[in-house]
Amino acid sequence: MYTFRSGVRFAVGARCDPDPVTTEEMRERLLVFAIDVLRMTRGLPNDDATRHASRQLFRAASSVACNYRATSLSRSTAEFLAKMGVVREEADEVAFWFEFLERAALLSAAGPEGQRLRAESREVAAMISAAYRTSRQRYGKLKSP
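Predicted structure:
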C-alpha cells in the first residue's frame, strides 16, 4: 500500500491494485519520489565518484517526474507515446543508478531510506513500463505484450 502525503492511499502492482492510479496521483507520487531522492543523495559521502552517481540519480529521478508531467501536454497520440517512452527510459536509468550505488557499496550510507527508495524506483519503473505498453497496445502500435 502506498500513501501520498496528501493522505490518498492505493495498492501498487497490477495484481493488487483494484483502482487505477489517476494521472494526478502519479504526478504527485513521482514528484515526492524525486524530492525524496534529492534528500537521500544529500546524505551520501562527498567524494567525486559518489557525487557523480548521486547527481545522475537525482537528475534521472527528477526527469521522470518532469517528463511524466509533460505527457499531459502532448498534442497528439504519437507525441504522447514518444514522451512516455522518454519517461520509461528515465525510470529505468533511476533503477540503474540505485543498483550501481548498491553494488559499489555506497547505498548503505543512506540507511533504510536508500533501500526504500530503491524498491520505489523498481515499482515506478514497472508502473511506467506497463502504462507505456498499454498505451501502445491501445493505439495499435504493438501487436503483443
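Summary: The domain at 22-138 is CATH 1.20.1440.60 (de novo design (two linked rop proteins)).
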